[in-house]
Amino acid sequence: MAKKNIDVAYSKLSPFELKNKLISLAKSAVERNMLNAGRGNPNFLATVPRQGFFQLGLFATAESEISFSFIPQGIGGYPEKHNLLDRFEHFIIRNHEKEGVAFLGKALSYVRDQMGLDANLFIQEMSEAILGCNYPTPDRMLTMSEHIIKKYLIQEMGMRGISSDDFDLFAVEGGTAAIAYIFNSLKENHLIKAGDKIAIGSPIFTPYLEIPELNDYELVEIMVEADADKNWQYPEKELRKLEDPSIKAFFLVNPSNPPSVKIDDKSLDILADIIKKHPDLIVLTDDVYGTFADNFRSLFSICPQNTILVYSFSKYFGATGWRLGVIALTKDNILDKKIAHLPRKESAELNKRYSSLSLEPQKIKLIDRMVADSRAVGLNHTAGLSTPQQAQMVLFALFEMMDMQHSYKAMIKTLIRRRHAALYNHLGVPQPDDENSVDYYTLLDLEKISSQLYGKDFSQWIMKTQDPLDILFHIATETGIVLLPGKGFGVLHPSARASLANLYEYQYIAIGKAIRGLADKYYEAYLKAKKK
After folding, report:
1. Are 323 and 349 contacting, i.e. CB atoms less than 8 angstroms apart?
2. Measured between alpha carbons, how far is 531 from 392 in angstroms, rounded to an integer?
């Protein structure tokens, strides 16, 4: 197996674009099923809150038709608010045996009796939201919806000492929209400028590496490297880079992508100490995988005044097609304070930018500026996540908060960890074991695995004679398996990312066996090379 010297152009592609080439190779052989382990889209999803969504839709549609009952069938109006709650409760009683209806009844009870919210306002908001008959009002997020999602985040993100009154939410089209909106508004509000240094917690979701390099931003990236030999935790020496006052912001994904490891308590304490020494540091924490972790604590709970939180419902609830996410920012934050103290010229520029929104544009909070910026300011009046999306988001959140036994969480954790075990057991190497790992992805360290299978000399030979990307191309061609290169996520050593969320357990067994079979072929080539 001579080194192939693949087209170096492929090494420059984002791993998410490279996957298309790998998929074409994996599909090329006849009579073979492709196994795409490069895709992060989960193949599991929460059904109960979806059943509730569709039942709520039927109720709201019937209510709509009642208000226009003199019109031919097929036309409705806004649900009549008078006695709407009574009619909803009668709907629950009449249809309690139907899938999703009992869940809606329990959700109403939870909102009223456990959260202390106004049940009338809840049903009114949800009924109109699911019909999608009004622009989102407020545009940043529906009022009841925001309150409920705040409670969900406080529970799931480990927000100790933070109340729902302490922060604001902006409902967005998934985590990807959140990332794009944040970068844009930070730039538009002069919080980051071309040539500024930003720190990146690496390895990380590829767009965090790619966006700063665009000519829209032209930021200087300082890598804060997690250590594979320390179970993908950040060494203190790496974290202390953040004490450099010239670094404007620190972006990270926690738990990480692709190592899938949450930051441990020791590192959180170090970061808290760093913020004390560098109180102007902006932190963006993308915590989409936090709901898969045990005893998770977001950086938003450690240094709330400095931190922008990004959360997406996509992975945990199997809702990537729904595009559901939020941006969270405390009401007392350093970003608003930075904007308030900008030089006079920049302040005047921003006052002009947002002058159509308020007679006092200088008082508009950054999170509300994000809403405006997301629609080029002039379309701010039609901004906001669609109301049916917000209704589904609320039902997802209530489903999790009402699950006092955490049965859904336990089931999906068990599911992905069984897949993790199946892959490594049939690959024939020890299964990584780390209490901070969530196992949504796994990084296959090509050098380490080859050493575990056939020794250090073989490992050195394969790293010397085979380009890591060549190996992934070879895996795709020979086995029909698609893996993404770790390099595209900022991983320093030769590795491949495998998702443990999107295939079935027997398929991970097949992947483990196939990669082991290919390793055996490499070993045969190694033995022949030694004899020459």
Report:
1. no
2. 64
pLDDT in tens, 322-351: 999 999 999 999 999 999 999 999 999 999
Q: Give the whole-angstrom CA distance, residue 104 versus residue 395.
A: 9
Q: How big is the CA angle at 171 (ends 166 and 172), to the nearest 5 degrees?
A: 135
- Buried b / exposed e across 162-185, counting CB within 10 Å, b at 16+? bebeebbbbbbbbbbbbbebbbbb
Q: How far apart are CA 131 and CA 69, in angstroms?
A: 17
Structure tokens at 292: 């898969």
CA angle, residues 249, 210, 264, in degrees to nearest 5: 50
**CA gap 94, 55 in Å, rounded:** 12
Q: How far is CA 269 from CA 68, 206, 305, in A?
A: 60, 27, 16
According to DSSP, the β-strands at 441-445 and 495-499 are: antiparallel
The residues of the chain scoring below 50 in pLDDT are 2-4, 30-31
Structure tokens at 256: 């990480």
Per-residue pLDDT tens over the stretch 493-506? 889 999 999 999 99
* Token code pair at residue 391: 């209704």
Q: Can you read off the two tokens belonging to residue 258?
A: 């692709």
Distance CA 246, CA 261 (A): 28
Q: Indicate the residue type of 342.
A: L
